[in-house]
Specification:
Number of strands of chain A: 10
CATH class of the largest domain in chain A: Mainly Alpha
Strand order of the largest sheet of chain B: 6-7-8-3-9-10
Radius of gyration of chain A: 36 Å
CATH architecture of the largest domain in chain B: Up-down Bundle
Shape of chain B: elongated
Number of helices of chain B: 20
Structural class of chain A: alpha/beta
CATH architecture of the largest domain in chain A: Up-down Bundle
CATH topology of the largest domain in chain A: ABC transporter transmembrane region fold
Oligomer: heterodimer
Largest interface: A-B, 193 and 192 residues
CATH topology of the largest domain in chain B: ABC transporter transmembrane region fold
Number of domains of chain B: 2
Distance between the termini of chain B: 42 Å
Strand content of chain A: 5-15%
Order of helices and strands of chain B: HHHHHHHHHHEHEEHEEHEHHHHEHEEEHH
Number of domains of chain A: 2
Shape of chain A: elongated
Number of helices of chain A: 21
Distance between the termini of chain A: 51 Å
Largest sheet of chain A: 6 strands, mixed
Helix content of chain B: 55-70%
Radius of gyration of chain B: 35 Å
Chain lengths: ~625, ~625
């Protein structure tokens, strides 16, 4: 069972190469190309092995016999092999390009799509830097593994074995000597694996932290500048960057060691081969030509051996990258359609909250409990409560950005969890308190939820939200907005978000303090137009101001995590002191904060002063 | 209905394919940056060159000793049964191998260290430069692009240093020394080998021209992928609530596919270049084998020499592919450095003071004299226009004169777009005026150091961004050296203490990504406490209470009476309740001050403020 937050993850496994196996479904569609890559690489290597053998034939044949005409066929053969090697090389690179880039693209698409489907609760916890570094640099290191390291690990091991067999065939005592000498390498490689895994994981995590730091430092640039905290922010970034450098240096140290070992071994073996071979030739067990080609063949093996150190490192890195990626992919989207769910006809849209509760898993007390509320079709309810009383949380429950942890929410009697998520969200439109605009045209920003909206509908929404300023932008509705385009003021953004929500007449409209950034004049224009929209929809409006409350037919007062009063604004104002204190227009000055008597309700949500004022009135 | 292409709309700034002229300029710029990064390590690099030379000699000694063994030690063993020469050569090989490995280790560690230091320098440089750039830059250069500069572009350089630098030095040196050895060993055969060079140079030229363009394109496409990724996941609530997932997935697919295509092109060039180098090498090897065989048969050369020569030829061409690989990484890194150097070259339109006038303690006397201002559109086209003396940007403040004496609280009132926020931003020097002077205590803001200015003037806006970390961290951002009790005191004064105490871990509660754990109102309270803790002489509040509910706002107002008693304040608020704590009200309309007086005087009159106030009263029901 998934936890309440809508996120479930498998416990973090220790970094194992096992997760590389899980990449198979992404590689599968390109297995033909991968095989071709392998074929190209193996072929090229075999050809490489053949060239020294031709050398031997030249030395033992034509040179020994002083037969110049015998050179020609061998020369042509060598030429053919040389060309073939280059062709196979090209084939390998071509097939590798096609397969690994396509796989990289698929994997990245999949991660992105998966992340979009994960609930908001998941995104609350994961910094975007960590997500980004997994979707970019980790995916790239897997691409390098699939296109290169995996192939060459196979090829190099195969060619080592082939050459070993050939060497044993040429002169077995020396061949066996070479085989045995590989044992120390294997042992070092295995010991290296564990330490390298650890440090490469740390490096990759730290890169994610840095990306997060960069993102925050740019998004928070106004605050940083306003307070002149460049030094502080730089210091924070710098300490992470220095830490990354330290980790990278640890990696460098390990790599330098393993590379030195892998470079040392073949040279030592070469010395042994020469001495042993010399004795063998002296003893008549092999010819000089055989010794020369034996040594030449062995030098072909040097690169595969050398590269194993590097390939091992790259494979381990891909292993940690895969671990990090599967940490994301293993998070299950929990806000999904329940099996067997189908679209249902939604009528006028009667919204009911029945004993609804919600709590974040890390908090001891729930944010909301026992919330009961019914909104009739065409009715507008204002949700009023002190700062932090859970109003915004409540609004997020209706489009199922979070799932309730107790009770249920129904629309026309249907539990919203029994509706397809997409149908629910097409019926419920929301304007959030922080208006998010994307780097897209103004039109696309407006029609976010209804790409098929007609021009008339767009015009109507703009009119309701008093957002006609979009027509004055340099390219009108086609002007790019958001981070990469025109920057708009807070009030302008808010009006666009409102227009976006009312576009296409949703059945249920949820507005979270939709007019806070507007000036009084614009606010009254929007209110007038909005009230025409509200009569047609079921609406829940979070309100901080009396003027917004007046849009509503009834008001619900949220206190201490639950709704304590529902009624008409004027009634509540007259009878509920807590309500009066939250919405009273008078800022009745000083003195009230002294000698605060206890209110009648638990003083949890509102703040004590309000109740004091309520009592005084 | 939108089609595939037009979703992004039209912006003032777009990346075009650079002309060849610009391409040369860009490359020179990025090479300059690379040179700058390397130059502090010049001495070390020279040492490393020495190390690599010795290491290569040790590595090269191998084949030479083998040849020696076959030609001398072997006959000695066979003819005289003398083991001496063989033992001597065998132990020489052991020594060479040991030396090789040790030097290799030292070399890799040192280059790794230098590389990491270069990366650190680059990260620091770009990060602090971006931080120094004015808001005008940030409004157009999206966070996603900054992130892509500081992550994927820096990574490209990392890759170059990782696999490239050591490979290149080794390879170049091997090629050089082996080249010499080959010529010394047997000049005619050596010359045959050198035939490869003209071909290699031709191939390299072709690769260079094409890959520069290809890699530039990969940098651009990867930045677009990152921008889309960061933006849509940053706005995940809106994405999900408006069922945007399919469309975003489609857009991402397109961008991701663009990136794949760009990379495919670069990789394709590689798959011609590298095998091409290999082919040239193979042809030469065959030539050497044939010609060498003939020379041995003719008795012009010993068999051992040919054997050694063939071994060397192999080692001569193997590093050629390393050079090719390095060249490839280099092209990719240069493209990344082009982007990075572009950011680094971006000049601040709010440049730091050259000889800053020290100001330890400001009094808070703010003065605008003949200030003219308009937001410049940051396009290359407009830059050219500006250079040509034509300036068509709309003017927000035509000619503003204003004096705010120390300690005065001023409320700025007026319709949206009247220029209130602009005035506030100029007072905080987020922008510089086009004409005229903004001064603090008689000193032009442009002559103050950033540190002094920010200590004296603090601005709180309606967007209250919180950094990940605890509530206390976020309040402490106002004054990093503040103690815990000072932080809590600031929160108490503002009225934020109560909700903070109720959080699961009080002041130590993690506010989560972008303050997501707190409501908008709570975030505003935290940013108020933050500004209060900073204790500036001049406090600017731009719509800083818009998300507060009435009781919280009342608390803040009450606190403000105390806080503002001894400092200068500029307050912008649509809710005119703020005005009641002001000493003076300024009414703005299209960039001009049309009314100026105490709230009581203005209310008593029949001007714009009296109208606005009546409208506001009505809205309160």
């Amino acid at each position: 069972m998934a936890n309440d937050l809508g996120v479930s993850t498998t416990p973090a496994a220790t970094p194992r190469l096992g997760s590389l196996k899980r990449l198979w479904p992404y590689i599968r569609p390109y297995r033909g190309l991968v095989l071709l890559t392998l074929f190209g690489a193996l072929g090229a290597t075999l050809v490489q092995i053949a060239i020294p053998l031709i050398t031997q034939d030249v030395i033992d044949g034509p040179i020994a016999d002083r037969d110049k005409s015998g050179l020609i066929p061998l020369g042509l053969l060598a030429l053919a092999f040389g060309v073939a090697e280059a062709l196979l090389f090209f084939l390998r690179r071509w097939a590798m390009t096609k397969s690994s880039l396509a796989m990289e693209r698929d994997l990245r698409d999949h991660i992105y799509g998966h992340l979009l489907g994960l609930p908001v609760a998941f995104h609350d916890r994961w910094s975007s830097g960590q997500l980004l570094s997994r979707a970019t640099s980790d995916v790239s290191s897997i691409r390098r593994f699939v296109g290169f390291s995996a192939i060459f690990l196979v090829v190099n091991i195969v060619s080592c074995i082939v050459i070993m067999v050939l060497l044993i065939g040429i002169y077995w005592p020396l061949g066996i000597f070479i085989a045995v000498s590989a044992i120390p390498l294997v042992v070092t490689g295995m010991r290296f694996e564990r330490r390298y895994n650890l440090v490469s994981r740390q490096v990759q995590d730290q890169q994610g932290e840095i990306a997060t730091d960069v993102e925050e430092s740019v998004l928070g640039i106004r605050i940083i500048k306003a307070l002149g905290r460049r030094g502080l922010v730089f210091g924070r970034f710098d300490s992470r960057a220095v830490q990354l450098q330290r980790l990278e240096l640890g990696k460098v140290k390990l790599l330098a060691f393993i590379w030195a070992i892998f470079e040392l071994q073949p040279q030592l073996v070469l010395a042994g081969v020469l001495v042993g071979g010399a004795f063998a030739v002296a003893g008549g067990a092999m010819t000089i030509g055989t010794l020369v080609s034996f040594i030449a063949l062995f030098t072909v093996m040097v690169w595969p051996i050398l590269s194993i150190g590097w390939l091992l490192a790259s494979t381990l890195e891909a292993g940690t990258a895969a671990d990090r990626i599967f940490e994301l992919l293993d998070a299950q989207p929990t806000i999904v359609d329940t099996p067997g769910v189908r679209e249902r006809r939604i009528g006028a849209g009667r919204l009911r909250l029945e004993a609804v509760g919600f709590g974040y898993p890390d908090a001891a007390t729930p944010v909301l409990h026992d919330v009961d509320l019914e909104i009739a079709p065409g009715e507008t309810i204002a949700l009023v409560g002190a700062t932090g009383s859970g109003k915004t949380t409540l609004t997020a429950l209706i489009p199922r950005l979070y799932d309730v942890t107790a009770g249920r929410i129904t629309i026309d009697g249907v539990d919203i969890r029994d509706l397809p998520v997409s149908q629910l969200r097409s019926q419920v439109a929301t304007a959030f308190e922080d208006a998010t605009l994307f780097s897209m045209s103004a039109r696309e920003n407006l029609t976010l939820g209804r790409p098929d909206a007609t021009d008339d509908e767009v015009a109507e929404a703009i009119e309701v939200a008093q957002a006609s300023f979009v027509h004055d932008l340099p390219w009108g509705l086609d002007t790019r907005l958001g981070e990469q385009g025109m920057s708009l003021s807070g009030g302008q953004r808010q009006r666009l978000a409102l227009a976006r929500a009312v576009l296409g007449r949703p059945t249920v409209l949820v507005l979270d303090d939709p007019l806070s950034a507007l000036d009084v004049h614009t606010e009254s224009l929007v209110e007038e137009a909005l009230s025409r929209v509200l009569v047609r929809t079921t609406a829940l409006v979070v309100a901080h101001r009396p003027s917004t409350v007046l849009l509503a037919d009834r008001v619900a007062l949220l206190e201490g995590g639950t709704i304590t009063h529902i009624g008409r604004h004027s009634d509540l104002l007259a009878t509920v002191p807590a309500y009066r204190s939250i919405l009273s227009a008078e800022s009745d000055g000083d003195g009230a904060s002294q000698g605060r008597p206890r209110g009648d309700r638990e003083p949890s949500s509102g703040g004590r002063q309000m109740q004091v004022e309520g009592v005084r009135r | 209905m939108t089609t595939q292409g037009d979703w992004r709309g039209i912006a003032t700034e777009d990346v075009d394919d650079v002309s060849s002229q610009a391409g040369i300029f860009l490359r020179a710029r990025s090479r300059r940056l690379l040179g700058e990064l390397i130059s502090p390590h010049r001495r070390q690099v020279r040492w490393l060159l020495l190390v690599i030379i010795v290491q290569n000699l040790a590595w090269l000694a191998g084949p030479w000793l083998v040849g020696l063994g076959i030609d001398n030690a072997l006959p000695a063993l066979m003819d005289d049964a003398s083991v001496g020469p063989l033992i001597w050569i065998g132990s020489a090989m052991l020594v060479a191998a040991g030396l090789d490995a040790i030097l290799r280790y030292a070399f890799l560690r040192r280059t790794g260290q230098i590389g990491q230091e270069m990366l650190l320098t680059l990260r620091r440089k770009v990060f602090s430069h971006v931080q120094r750039l004015p808001l005008a830059f940030h409004e157009h250069y999206t966070s996603g692009r900054v992130i892509s500069r500081l992550t994927s572009d820096v990574d490209a350089l990392n890759e170059l240093l990782d696999e490239g630098l050591d490979g290149l030095l080794t390879a170049l040196f091997s090629i050089m020394t082996i080249g010499i050895v080959l010529i010394v060993l047997d000049p005619p055969l050596g010359l045959v080998t050198m035939l490869a060079f003209p071909l290699l140079i031709l191939l390299g030229r072709w690769f260079q021209t094409n890959s520069a363009r290809a890699y530039r394109r990969t940098r651009e496409t990867v930045a677009m992928v990152i921008v889309q990724f960061v933006e849509s996941l940053g706005g995940i609530r809106a994405v999900q609530a408006f069922r945007r997932e399919p469309r975003d997935t489609e857009i991402f697919r397109t961008l991701n596919e663009d990136n794949r295509k760009a990379q495919d092109r670069a990789f394709w060039l590689m798959s011609i270049f590298v095998p091409g180098v290999q082919l040239i090498g193979n042809l030469v090897t065959v030539g050497v084998l044939m010609y060498g065989a003939i020379r041995v048969m003719d008795g012009d050369m010993k068999l051992g020499v040919l054997a050694a020569f063939l071994l060397y030829v192999r080692r001569f061409f193997d590093p050629m592919s390393d050079v090719a690989m390095f060249y490839n990484s280099y092209q990719s890194a240069v493209a990344a450095l082009e982007k990075l150097s572009g950011v680094l070259e971006e000049e601040s339109s709010v440049p730091p003071a050259r000889n800053p006038q020290p100001m330890r303690q400001a009094h808070g006397d703010v003065r605008f004299e003949g200030v003219e201002f308009g937001y410049a559109e940051r396009t290359d086209a407009s830059r050219e226009r500006t250079l040509a003396g034509v300036n068509s940007d709309p003017i927000v403040l035509p000619d503003l004169d204003l004096h705010i004496p120390p300690g005065q609280t001023v409320a700025l009132v007026g319709a949206t777009g009247a220029g209130k926020s602009t005035l506030a931003r100029l007072a905080g020097r987020f922008y510089d005026p086009r004409a005229g002077i903004v001064s603090l205590d008689g000193v032009d803001l442009r002559r103050l150091s950033d540190e002094d200015l920010r200590r004296a003037v603090v601005m709180v806006t309606q967007e209250s961004f919180l950094f990940s970390g605890s509530v206390a961290d976020n309040i402490g951002f106002g004054r990093p050296e503040a103690s815990r009790s000072e932080i809590e005191h600031a929160a108490r004064v503002i009225g934020a203490d109560e909700f903070i105490q109720k959080l699961p871990e009080g002041y130590d509660t993690d506010v989560r990504k972008r303050g997501g754990r707190l409501s908008a109102g709570q975030r505003q309270l935290v940013s108020f406490a933050r500004a209060f803790l900073a204790d500036p002489a001049v406090l600017i509040l731009d719509e800083a209470t818009s998300s507060l509910d009435i009781p919280s706002e009342r608390l803040v107002q009450r606190a403000l009476r105390t806080i503002l008693a001894d400092r200068t304040a500029i307050i912008i608020a649509h809710r005119l309740s703020t005005v009641e704590i002001a000493d003076r009200v300024l009414v703005m309309e299209s960039g001009r001050l049309i009314e100026d007086g105490s709230p009581y005087d203005l209310l008593a009159g029949s001007g714009r403020f009296a109208d606005l106030h009546t409208a506001w009263r009505d809205s309160l029901a």
